[in-house]
Amino acid sequence: MRPRGAAFAAGPPGDLHLGTAIGFAGAIWRSRSPAMSTLLDIKSSVLRQVQVCPSFRRRTEQDPGSASADPQEPATGAWKPGDGVEFFAHMRLMLKKGEGRQGLPCLEAWGSPCRQSGSPAPPEPVDPSRGLRALAPEEVEMLYEEALYTVLYRAGTMGPDQVDDEEALLSYLQQVFGTSPEEHTEAIERVRKAKAPTYALKVSVMRAKNLLAKDPNGFSDPYCMLGILPASDATREPRAQKEQRFGFRKGSKRGGPLPAKCIQVTEVKSSTLNPVWKEHFLFEIEDVSTDQLHLDIWDHDDDVSLVEACRKLNEVIGLKGMGRYFKQIVKSARANGTAGPTEDHTDDFLGCLNIPVREVPVAGVDRWFKLRSRGHCHLGSSRNMITTQRDTAMSQRGRSGFRLVPLLLLSAICTLRLSTQQRSPSACHGAQSNHDHPCSGQHWQVSSRHHQTCTLDYSYLLGLLEDMQAHWEEAPSLPQEQEESLADSLSAFSEFGLQLLRQLRDYFPATNSTAVYRLELLLKCLGKLQLFQPSFEICPFETELNMDIAAALKRGNREWYDRILNAKSPREQPGPQRLPGLVVLADAVYDDLQFCYSVYAGLFHSILNVDVFTLTFRQLERLVAEEAWVLTEELSPKMTLEVASGLFELYLTLADLQRFWDSIPGRDSRSLALAGIHAPFLPAVKLWFQVLRDQAKWRLQGAVDMDTLEPVDASSRHSSSAATAGLCLSHIQELWVRLAWPDPAQAQGLGTQLGQDMCEATLFYTELLRKKVDTQPGAAGEAVSEALCVVLNNVELVRKAAGQALKGLAWPEGATGPEGVLPRPLLSCTQALDDDLQREAHTVTAHLTSKVGGAWRPRRGGSPWSWPDHPCPQAVAPLMKYLDEKLALLNASLVKGNLSRVLEALWELLLQAILQALGANRDVSADFYSRFHFTLEALVSFFHAEGQGLPLESLRDGSYKRLKEELRLHKCSTRECIEQFYLDKLKQRTLEQNRFGRLSVRCHYEAAEQRLAVEVLHAADLLPLDANGLSDPFVIVELGPPHLFPLVRSQRTQVKTRTLHPVYDELFYFSVPAEACRRRAACVLFTVMDHDWLSTNDFAGEAALGLGGVSGVARPQVGGGARAGQPVTLHLCRPRAQVRSALRRLEGRTSKEAQEFVKKLKELEKCMEADP
């Protein structure tokens, strides 16, 4: 009978799987095969394979339709000069490209969207030639017989997760080998007639603990004596056997000497109660069902060498001699270690245990056993029961020429398993059960070979390597041929893994979470291979695996780079044609480095301690730099618009690469090949900025042409062109930030020029707006123009956008100041632009307010003061109603800032209108001015609007104060107006110090004589009013106001010729009462004149000194006429607006006093007309 070879194409049905066949082949592999192979764990392996779960790092991929993707902007070709829309669309693409290049990429979680893809991982390459050869029919027949023999003559106990059902195991073998029921039954009968195998038991004595202390020092010198004891009565009941488990103990009812198969002894461990041996022994077994393993622990006390005792023990011949030796053991055991000096030995008994051979687990034992005295003993072995002789054709044939047959069988069963399952290659999971060191090696060799022909799950391969590692150090060394085979499999797998790493981007794309997890498992497998490297006498690796990995990555980087370079920018093409492709290449390199840093670097460093990011960055950066240097040198003489655009975009990516390296702690871009790359790109950047300026104007021109000067939507108050202008300015500023030119001096020049271009474009836009609004047809009688409001809002929006953009042009530290601070050239440019835009806004505001005011002025009877017969509230009501209507429209049409600006302008317009009305109506009734005052306060309340409008501080400042003063003075008498004139003189004396010179005087009042003494001392720094550069100054001294001192005449000093620093020292007396000097407006007026012989005297300056503070006026002097007081220095000045204001207030009055005073002021004005 021979099983059908076609079974390997059909495959086994049912729930028994690959683990079974691997176990069969493992049993056949060793010269001392285990009695029971991995058939023990068939069921558990099947369950693990069916129920295997993916790693927690794998996440459910998003549905293709569920994730919302950003709409892709259409690609634009080479933009044409003058096409502003296309140019800025291309610039937006460049900015969008740089959005994800700010700082280091984040190390994202495994389940993040960027790691998820809707497709499985790319398939790995497979090579059927790398697998093991197929089995011949004769070889299949022998393996079938060997498998049946293993099942029928299995020994030992099964674990809870292992199959002990003989019928299930035999049925699985029939399915695996594809035999018919008749053939299967015939093969079983033939195998049952074969001779039973000879077994051997492997025992590892590991350690003991808590033993009895037999020596005076409180310790013992323990050693173990162990052997195989046959059962004295094979017909004993199982319960009786269990009771006699420890047959060497005192009280045993056995009669006669107890024979032993073999006795072996461990080393003596001195002075310890917790000895550690870790020694391994092998015992032959005659009857698996009845033999027992017996172990004694003794305290060594005599001087006889234990090695010598073992030698004598091995000289015992025959079962009778062995029985006599064990008779002494029994005797010592019954004495329980209390033998006297007459006994044949001196060692003390510490404990013992018995283990029936049939109870030894097939998979191995590794646990503590309690001794029958005190303490515990630890026995361990990964595979206890093995066979030494097997009555099968394969065993009779021997190993010659048949070493790889079990491995070939495992490979065939792997293929069989895959052919019966419709699934992806990556779903092939193996049974991850614990195996001993040789069996794990067999599993690994078969699975790793099969993985290269049909992809398996790396988690299964990693489990095999972990099993091998767990038992590698404690297991005995492999035979040379097995070690060579295992070394070959490790080397072949490492070569396969290096081949995959060379094509890292193809087989493990960073955007695919499944592929990244598969890469992690592959790296862990390669990391495990490194642990086996120093364990082989025949090393499977010629060099360090880390070096091979680094070399594979470098080679893969170069191949990937050359592939893109040849596809996008072949060196055979001219420079201008290669430039766009080189931009694509540089972008691809940057994106690849981002993935390398955020995805691959952590895996390679944590698992293999390989710095893949530094390796990849250095290599790709050097390659891109070489191409960029060569291309810029070639294109410099051929600089055109399109070339400049391409070079500018290329430089942005190269600069991003440098910043990427700089952003990593401890890295410095000065060591890169790209260091200094900005220098050859400077001409292209300058040309591109010039084009940017022109294209910005074209873009703004087109935006204004298309603008209807209507709000964009209900929530906006500016039109479409303002949004376009703000966006253009923002894009220019963002582009400058991304450019980040490294040379400070060059950055200053580029930034200044770019700032000036932005200011020019902004002003160009406002001019276009003003021209457009001028051509807009307005409705007849329309006071509030919506177009004007939109234009004003546009100007305000662009002003803020331009200011923000200019602030963003601050160049790096080292040019003219600290980083982030606006340098002086840029600050001047910013201030000038703001002033220009403010003026532009004021122009539009004035135009708008003039239309509002112009629509109000023509109304007859519209002025509150034009209705003298109506009460004040009724008279002002039409004006308030009109303003309320127009301001409601303005509030709906203007932004807050512009509304405040228009309110301020309208407020100023109303104040000027009232001032004009005051000037047009002179010497009218007091009620007339009361109406003005009522109107003014009503307007203040209206424009303040209970805090919602203009603040009271701004309303009651400037023109309001002047108007308020005008109204107050218009209600005053003539003398009160004159007094106000002198009070103004006193207030203005310190406004312009040192311009007209200084005058030193001294005044005091002599109460006894009732006179005022005024002493003119000297003057300095007078104005040169003569042709010779000097003057002939004299001083006129007079008291004012005139109505306070009606009898006092003015006096004058002598003329000091040809000097600007005259010295007078002249004293003048004015007989005046003290009461008049104490009045609020009383003062001494000093007028400095230049004496001219042939024409009228010239005015040089004047100064006033209040009499209220003169010594003797407020408090009479003690001692009569003694002089008192200190010299006072007065700064000369010229009469300012107060003179003309007083003149206007008084010239309309018909009283004689007012006319005389006005006449005097006009004469003084004539003297000042010729002054500089």
TrEMBL record:
Domain MHD2, chain residue ranges per copy? 873-981
Keyword Protein transport appears in the UniProt entry: no
**Which is one Gene Ontology cellular component term of this protein?**
plasma membrane
Q: Which domain of life is it from?
A: Eukaryota
Q: Which Pfam families match?
A: C2 (PF00168)
One of its GO biological process terms is: positive regulation of insulin secretion involved in cellular response to glucose stimulus
Which keywords appear in this protein's UniProt record, sorted alphabetically?
Answer: Cytoplasm, Endosome, Exocytosis
What range(s) does the C2 domain occupy? 180-339, 995-1121
Residues of the region (Disordered) are: 55-81
- Homology family: Belongs to the unc-13 family.
Q: What is this protein called?
A: BAI1 associated protein 3
Organism ancestry: Eukaryota, Metazoa, Chordata, Craniata, Vertebrata
Gene that encodes it: BAIAP3
